[in-house]
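In this supplementary section we document a worked example of the pipeline. Step one takes a protein sequence of length 582 as its only input; no multiple sequence alignment statistics are reported here. Step two produces a three-dimensional model, which step three serialises into structure tokens for compact storage. The input and output of this example are shown verbatim.
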Amino acid sequence: MRIRKQSDGISVHAVSGTYVVTLGMNATTAEARNGLLGFAIRRIDKTENQQYWMRGMRTFASVYPNPPAGALVSSHEHPIQDFLWSDFTAKAAHEYVYEVHPVRGEPKNPDYGTPVIVPVSTEQERDGNHEVWFNRGVIGSQAYAREFGNKDPQKLKGRERERAYEWLSRGLFEAMRDFVRRAKTKKFGIRAAVYEFSYEPIIAEFRDARKRCGDVQIIYDARIKKSHGKPDKQASGRVALTRRLLKKYGLGSESIARARRATPNAIAHNKFIVLLENGKPTAVWTGSTNFTESGIFGQANVGHAVEDDGVAKSYLDYWKRLYADPEVPSLRKLNCEAGADLKDFPPPRGITPIFSPRLKDSQKRTILNWYASSAMSGAKNLMCFTAAFGVNELFMLVLERNWAPTDDLRYLFLNKWGLNPGTSDVTQERLKKNRYNVVAVGGYLVGDVLHEYLMDRWRKERSNTLSKNVRYTHTKYMLVDPLGEDPIVISGSANFSNASTISNDENMLIIRGDKRVADIYLGEFMRLWQHYRFRSIVDDHADEPTGHRNDYTPKYLSEDDSWTEGFFRKGYMRCKRREVFC
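The serialised model returned by step three reads:
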């Protein structure tokens, strides 16, 4: 939901998803900004009959100069000095009231102005046509370090291990499991297309579903490319593991689990499940989450269920095309015959599924061109984008422009800067060409000599031990003007790459005009972006000479209103951000 309130020169624009509430604040007059020390925010939870002041980590040096590592402090004594703030501790389907108090006066003798009162209802996970679940995606975090003592989740025992995995899942595993469990009687059926399929609790759910309904069929990736004339070891190991586990759980016969082998240099990268009822498709589970421990609990991922007969039928038809195990050229033609590429922008209202591989047009363009030159370029105010495997050249050409008719704010969340050091440096330089490109890159606070200058204020964090190649984000989505009246969400399995368009089995959802879905995605994007943005900045400074690091002074809150200056200076990113979110 979205709601805007104001009082005495202070406005607050609230956007709530399921587990995140974002507050875009503004001082609408010079008088309101004068002497402003920040905002004290109190949350009243009407659902659970609780109320408390929200907390942060930065303090006034004159009031609290040496907080212990990882300490959280009340915004009532140490206000938020920003015009964008998010509550990452909200719960789904809750009624909240946020009181945003402007703080003036002196740090040791604050004066609290008239609060802006903002009633907020967070979204339910299941509502209407869409059900959206994001896992936590932040093993390397202050929250995990506080909650679980920074221990490796795989080495925890008993109830502590269960709690850690529940915390990391944040409902994603349970939603995936419950979707499979909907096949509960003989009138139901399941059709699935999977890439990595190794998390045994979810494989056991497919087994149990087959016992209940007797109609479960799975297409799994069994393509093994050759490297230097020999079968690729990683692909061979993945396929062998899938086959072993299918057999272990009684799903190994060809009539139940069909291998996708044709055109071995491509990959069958889908992760979707179609639910049938009385032989007809009624719902589909899709998104970026592989059926693995890493996908569900480690790297950031999303699961997205759609309750729509037409969308479910398009996925079932696609599944049937895959079941025949066609070569890539044949499948390209079939996919384009089933649904033509998008040409215009904006796309049709509602839900448009896109299935790959696809043909190039007469000008050798693909749907990737539309994603870049139409969708990304079409943003007027705000564009958010995740990339697990680098930024494709088509997108880079849009992002590096230092001119744009609308000067939209572009938020990027990357797993890492590039696939190798050479591309990393080039990517950074090209993205710096536009001042409104703001990038967060995966990382964590190591606590070694590189980060020693921070450790007096922050706890040491740990690496994501559940994931190897992709540790931070595995999501593939783009948000175009998510705060507008006509938002566009693009989300699915495809990595916005050439291969994901013309070679691999992939699926994407293009959702236009659904503000609830956009609010959920935006809240989760900002949660992860803000988390990793700070760590990106820390890592950048960690490369400075040792003397510079030793001279580092921990950041404290400003003791006057000088902190507001950058937020009201035209051409500055902070000013643009305030304008966009408030």
